[in-house]
């Protein structure tokens, strides 16, 4: 809300104030020495002040006051959730053509964290609310906000599977691994330490291990695996997976 324009006059009440607002003549009569001219947007120019004794001052020069409107809150990206190891999308705020955009991570809007249309949120576990305002002609909008959440995402690693051709549990399923860890590589070794399966980076679920090596079904038994997550945060996972009947 814009505060009204108040002028203080000296003399004997009642007082009459004449002024223009964007060139249109206006006048106010009041018994109070503090007189409000309102809070409409525009350029105010005082033209004459008089009291009950008709003492007038029409030589006010360019006593001009300009009130600018408060800009609307900027538009901002939608709320989003990510796994903690994932690089989030850059947030985008859009406002008026000549406005200045500022980002904050607290509702008090005390400490700006970024200026400009774009902000890349930090990977912080839990939900963080970012606030963004636009400033135009020294007037600051109310904030808009966006919530970005990060959570620990885990891949469930089965200890066994049954590649017997019955279309149930026929492959070693690592559900969601490509989405959570888009650079993953999975290795399977036999008891002699030879690699019998290696996935394409980031595409394990496209062709998950079906218990075969060179198109031949491997016998029932235990096989060593290494899962490289390749996200600079998550340690490689190692263990045993068994082929069972």
Q: Give the class from helix and strand content and strand pairing.
A: mainly beta
Helix content: under 10%
Order of helices and strands: EEEEEEEEEEEEEEEEEHEEEEEE
Shape: rod-shaped
CATH class of the largest domain: Mainly Beta
- Distance between the ends: 74 Å
**Helical stretch tally:** 1
| Mean pLDDT value | 89
- Cα radius of gyration in angstroms: 35 Å
Number of strands: 23
Number of domains: 3
Instruction: Characterize the largest beta sheet: strand count, sense, and whether it forms a barrel.
Output: 6 strands, mixed
Structure commentary:
- With 245 residues, the chain is an all-beta fold.
- 2% of the residues lie in helices and 45% in strands.
- The chain folds into three domains: 5-67, Immunoglobulin-like; 75-151, Sandwich (Immunoglobulin-like); 160-243, Immunoglobulin-like.
- It is built from one helix and 23 strands.
- Strands 9, 11, 12, 14, 15 and 16 form a six-stranded mixed sheet that branches.
- The longest helix has 4 residues, at 177-180.
- The termini are far apart.
């Amino acid at each position: 809300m814009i505060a009204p324009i108040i002028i203080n006059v000296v003399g004997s009440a009642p007082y009459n104030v004449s002024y223009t607002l964007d060139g249109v003549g206006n006048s106010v009569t009041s018994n109070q020495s503090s007189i409000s001219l309102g809070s409409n947007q525009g350029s105010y120019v005082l033209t004459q002040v008089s009291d009950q004794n008709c003492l007038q001052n029409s030589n006010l020069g360019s006593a001009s006051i300009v009130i600018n409107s408060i800009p609307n809150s900027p538009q901002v990206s939608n709320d989003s959730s990510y796994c903690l190891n994932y690089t989030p999308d850059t947030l985008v705020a859009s406002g008026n053509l000549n406005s200045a955009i500022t980002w904050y991570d607290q509702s008090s809007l005390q400490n700006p964290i970024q200026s400009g249309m774009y902000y890349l949120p930090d990977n912080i576990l839990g939900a963080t609310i970012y606030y963004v305002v636009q400033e135009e002609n020294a007037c600051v909008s109310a904030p808009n906000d966006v919530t970005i959440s990060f959570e620990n995402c885990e891949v469930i690693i089965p200890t066994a599977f049954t590649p017997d051709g019955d279309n149930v549990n026929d492959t070693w399923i690592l559900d969601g691994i490509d989405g959570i860890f888009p650079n993953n590589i999975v290795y399977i070794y036999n008891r002699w330490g030879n690699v019998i399966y290696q996935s394409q980076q980031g595409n394990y679920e496209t062709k998950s291990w079906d218990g075969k090596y060179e198109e031949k079904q491997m016998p029932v038994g235990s096989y060593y695996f290494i899962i490289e997550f390749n996200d600079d945060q998550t340690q490689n996972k190692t263990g045993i997976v068994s082929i069972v009947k």
